[in-house]
Fold this sequence. Notes:
This protein is of the alpha/beta class.
Amino acid sequence: MVMAHILLIKRNEKERNFLAKELKKNGYEVDEITDIRKAIDRINELRFDVVVADLDTMNTVEEGHNLLKKVIREQVIPPYLIIDKKPPAWTESYILEASSLKKVIELIGHIQSKEQKLMQAEIDYLRHRQPYIYNTDHIVAKSPQMRQVLSMVKKICSSDATVLITGETGTGKELIASAIHFNSPRRKRAFVKVNCAALHETLLESELFGHEKGAFTGAYKRRIGRFEQADGGTMFLDEIGDMSPSVQAKVLRVIQEKEFERLGGEKTIKVDVRLLAATNKDLRALIEEGKFRQDLYYRINVLHIHLSPLRERHEDIMPLAEFFLRKFSSHLSKPIKGFSPGAKRFLLNYPWPGNVRELENIIERAVLMAEGDIIDERDLFIEYDLSPSIVRKGIKLKEAERELIIQALQRSNWIQKEAARLLGISKRAIHYKIKKYGIKHYRWIKNR
Length: 448
């Protein structure tokens, strides 16, 4: 059982010591603070489950509101706040009143029991649902490219081999990684995901390997890293191409030796982890630039799965759109039956630079905004960017030009003359390119 982490904010030393002693005796982790400002700093550094505070520690109303804001309103999962006297204006359900020290201990016991039951119910639900969600037979895949990917996933699930998953942003790399784990012998153990691009080098190192108390400024206590959490299970390193060379060296050691040390620690920790990695970058090009270790590349590229962009697998567009339509219609309680012919043509003609993620977002917005029981073309609002960034690495010139022409046509409501003006070319030139790239729109057919 994971015990609650509690912050005590009390000036009265006798009361604070009594509570700390009793709570620690029951297995709780307790931090003690006497000053409200230091408490707020500590809350910004660490995640607490319960905060126990006396109103007399808050010298002014402003300080009280600041504590409430920092502890409650800015936390993703608000911790419980136990105070000796609850002001009438503080009506939030997670703010509790305890008139005695004995009552504080009782309340924390009730909170621990309640949260443990909720956690277990959620774990049971996820264990039941995830094998269904990530069953390869349930993943939408009509195109030959995706059928080949799922065929490979089925073959490699039972092994412990490292897998490199490549593809543009939004193509579904995390979905494939999840399918590999939840169809493997490790499925009942942890599946730990880390986005390497989202964290600074030092934070990423601490996130992966953990740290000892005092390892750096703000390290108030020992932290277990993600590799330890994934022991016996699977680690998914997303955007591994953004990892710094120093962290790459440590990850390479974990793959080769199955061991590491926490930041600031000397103890060698052994782990049994299967590694899955993903990137939208060209790792070979990064190796040539000296930004990615060649030995690490060969270690993670034992098995390679490449996900094609959505624009190259048209057979998946409508099945995915219909899947997302059912999903969001159910979530939003809107009985939408399907797509109009115009909406279908729109979905099939659009180049999807954001891939499956963009399609999902657009369908969610369309379901939310739709007034009838059919999604029409006008419900599929897309923001266009005609900036030079359209020419991304990995896109051929022809593909970029076709995508740019389609975006100009979309912005000009499919009027070729207006699209030509946006692109700075003649109407004759855009007509030639439309024919060259096989771009079609139902309005043009209707007008013939």
